[in-house]
Design a protein that fits this description.
Number of strands: 15
Radius of gyration: 20 Å
Helix content: 25-40%
CATH architecture of the largest domain: 2-Layer Sandwich
Order of helices and strands: HHEEHEEEEHEEEEEHEHEHEEH
Structural class: alpha+beta
Strand content: 15-25%
């Protein structure tokens, strides 16, 4: 019987770092800080039904959404870990109106800024559905002191690294530094992330589409046409496709990356720009999708090329295998050109 040597997250990123002589280890330490916070958050999520941590905090975040206790808890833990690690000089979080700039003894050293959604899909907590953390890492533009708003308002093409942690039947950390996508599963017995999904790529034959069809009446005509396309019977293109929708962006993206499929969160007549945030939701998964051989778009433009104007800017998201996303783009241009100007 042959046994496979287990490779931990720390071992993996140190080995990758050694391949680049110019690397100083700061990004390695930053990723470890994120992993540490993820373990703490994971512990509380797993115990959520046993402690007083479910339910609402009684406050709203900047999005006008009611904050759950776990939202607040996760936000605090990631901020603490990143501030204490010293490699990050500022954070933009979904839960905070303004950036959090670290004006302390570490701020001169910190070379990176992070945009993060500490707990994506938290409305699913009580239903025991998979939720996640999603993050993007940029190199700071400012030269000294704490990080600035300008440091965060960078297009996705400037990303240094991005990833997510999914808390489900197992807890996984999936990330990329621009050299492919790799996934690590948490071994709860020893508290270590181990390489479980090396070199993740979209499958060639993808047959899943993920969208909240309950909003069908408000969708652009191009998206209505795409849903009809997905439901048509055509064996040469493996249609009809299978509809799968969890309602947690990280969970839907993760499943589609492994099994093959497209995730759609369109603008609507009620919300033309959609509801997902560009900086800390769309950009990180777009970075991962491209590294996994896929594509991400707002229906007309590459997601990573969209210039952010505000911290909590929203944008439609169509993400998955290239052919599937390009079909959406073609139908949007044909049937919903007015949405390009939104």
């Amino acid at each position: 019987m042959t046994t496979r040597r287990i490779k931990t997250l720390t071992q993996f990123i140190v080995e990758r770092q050694s391949q680049y002589p110019q690397a100083k280890g700061a990004l390695t330490r930053l990723l470890n800080d994120l992993a540490t916070a993820a373990k703490i958050v994971n512990r509380e999520i797993n115990a959520a039904g046993l402690v007083d941590i479910l339910g609402y905090e009684g406050t709203d975040n900047i999005q006008g959404e009611s904050q759950k206790k776990l939202d607040v808890y996760a936000n605090e833990r990631f901020i603490e870990a990143l501030k204490g690690g010293g490699e990050c000089c500022a954070i933009a979080s979904e839960e905070n109106e303004k950036i959090i700039s670290f004006q302390n003894e570490f701020s001169e050293r910190g070379k990176y800024v992070i945009a993060i959604d500490p707990l994506d899909g938290s409305s699913n907590i009580e239903a025991n559905v998979s939720i996640g953390t999603v993050f993007s890492i940029y190199r700071r533009i400012s030269e000294a002191g704490g990080g600035t708003l300008e440091d965060l308002l960078q297009p996705g093409v400037n990303l240094v690294a991005a990833g997510y942690i999914i808390y489900g039947s197992s807890t996984m950390l999936v990330y990329s530094t621009g050299k492919g996508v790799n996934g690590f599963t948490l071994d709860p017995s020893v508290g270590i992330f181990c390489l479980s999904h090396p070199d993740m790529r979209y499958p060639e034959n993808s047959q899943i589409y993920s969208i909240n069809e309950g909003n069908y009446i408000y969708f652009p005509e191009g998206i209505k046409q795409y849903i009809k396309y997905c439901q048509e019977d055509d064996s040469s293109t493996l249609r009809p496709y299978t509809s799968r929708y969890i309602g947690s962006m990280v969970a839907d993206f993760h499943r589609n990356l492994i099994k093959g499929g497209i995730f759609l969160y369109p603008g609507t007549t009620k919300h033309p720009k959609g509801k997902l945030r560009l900086l800390y939701e769309n950009n990180p998964v777009a970075f991962l999708a491209e590294q996994a051989g896929g594509k991400s778009s707002d229906g007309f433009r590459r997601t990573l090329e969209i210039e952010p104007k505000t911290l909590h800017q929203r944008s439609p998201l169509y993400i998955g295998p290239k052919a599937m996303v390009e079909k959406v783009e073609a139908l949007m241009r044909e049937f919903s050109p007015e949405f390009e100007k939104q």
